[in-house]
User: Which sequence fits this backbone?
């Protein structure tokens, strides 16, 4: 059985990390898995990237060209919107030439695959939904909009008051394309995403199942907190709060909200750890002592940072199945997050972490205090890891995907 995993990136972004982890987990289980990407950053030979330098440069240009239809929407919200209009026949020819038994799509925007070209894939398709894009008129995050349940148009993210706007036209393109697909299975990573897809107009009559991302629990695991803190020159006598945002420009990750939350935390012995590509400029408004550790590109270093901290905070407006939450819990570090999206698939309130009421800043601050002050922090850590071991480990998840593949091929 040959599986071809398709994603725009192999390393960059949460979807890429999740797709690559599934690829590795399948290989571990003896499956002939390959991964095809538009932008290759790693050196794994089982990941196929651009075949020529010209193609590499064209793929870079595609990211800019892909946004060209949005030029007339000057007041659009700062939420990612993808038309997926650029031709992708070379990618499709390459997919079909590889002749996999199943093509497993993941995140395919930034010019990776044009909507219409999805129907030209010859093999059965599994499509893992890392965000809402597949069933909307172009928005990657629906937030409070429910137009996807009927038809898009008058798009709030585009600040459009026109029925036949870009979102409506993209929605129609998807409807026409999906109607040509006879063998496609949709995968919602979280229960929330699965329900969204089932309730959408475009996928309401399709097979939609819930399967999560896998994680290597032999890599992401508790270590020695003292040694981990020494490695990053972090203090031993402080309670450390961790915030992870590899993309500091993503407004949905809630850093501005976190500033207000930290002002409500009454504990005196706390300090703040930040990792990400850039230190957010607004971090100067945080009164706590801060440790900015920069962009972390390897998982081994990332594990030691989770291990060094006492609590990870995820104040995002919405999450599907958050890699940061899963990584932190696997490493034995409890998490505070808002009770939205797929967060409750991993965090059990007051059992292995804290789910704050959306979007109650005081309740979120109370969650930080509860985890740090709670006398059973060590027990919290154990419970946090236990749920990852039983539901999200490489072995557990990859076996479920293999069973899905076999069912489709049968």
Assistant:
């Amino acid at each position: 059985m040959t599986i071809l995993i398709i994603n725009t990136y192999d390393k960059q972004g949460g979807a890429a990390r999740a797709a690559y982890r599934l690829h590795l987990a399948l290989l571990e289980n003896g499956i002939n898995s390959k991964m095809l990407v538009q932008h290759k950053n790693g050196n794994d030979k089982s990941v196929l990237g651009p075949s020529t330098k010209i193609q590499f440069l064209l793929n870079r240009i595609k990211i800019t060209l892909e946004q060209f239809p949005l030029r007339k929407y000057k007041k659009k919200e700062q939420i990612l919107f993808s038309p997926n209009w650029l031709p992708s026949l070379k990618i499709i020819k390459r997919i079909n030439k590889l002749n996999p038994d199943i093509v497993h799509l993941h995140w395919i925007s930034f010019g990776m695959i044009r909507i219409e070209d999805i129907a030209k894939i010859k093999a059965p398709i599994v499509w893992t939904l890392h965000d809402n894009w597949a069933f909307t008129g172009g928005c990657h995050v629906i937030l409070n909009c429910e137009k996807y349940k009927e038809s898009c148009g008058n798009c709030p993210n585009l600040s459009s008051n026109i029925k036949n706007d870009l979102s409506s036209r993209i929605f129609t393109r998807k409807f026409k394309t999906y109607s040509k697909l006879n063998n496609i299975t949709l995968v919602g990573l979280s229960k929330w995403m699965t329900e969204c897809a089932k309730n959408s107009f475009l996928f309401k009559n399709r097979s939609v199942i819930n399967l999560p991302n896998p994680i290597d629990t032999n890599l992401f695991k508790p270590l020695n907190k003292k040694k981990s803190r020494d490695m990053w020159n972090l203090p031993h006598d402080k309670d450390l709060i961790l915030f992870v945002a590899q993309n500091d420009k993503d407004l949905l990750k809630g850093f501005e909200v976190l500033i207000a939350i930290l002002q409500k935390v009454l504990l005196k012995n706390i300090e703040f750890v930040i990792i990400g590509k850039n230190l957010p400029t607004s971090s100067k408004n945080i009164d706590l002592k801060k440790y900015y550790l920069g962009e972390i590109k390897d998982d081994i270093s990332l594990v030691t940072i989770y291990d060094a901290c006492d609590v990870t905070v995820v104040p995002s407006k919405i999450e599907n199945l958050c890699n940061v939450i899963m990584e932190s819990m696997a490493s034995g570090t409890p998490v505070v997050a808002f009770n939205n999206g797929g967060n409750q698939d991993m965090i059990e309130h007051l059992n292995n972490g804290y789910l704050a009421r959306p979007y109650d800043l005081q309740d979120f601050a109370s969650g930080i205090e509860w985890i740090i002050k709670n006398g059973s922090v060590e027990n919290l850590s154990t419970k946090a890891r236990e749920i990852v071991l039983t539901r999200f480990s490489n072995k557990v998840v990859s076996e479920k995907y293999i069973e899905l593949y076999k069912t489709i091929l049968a």
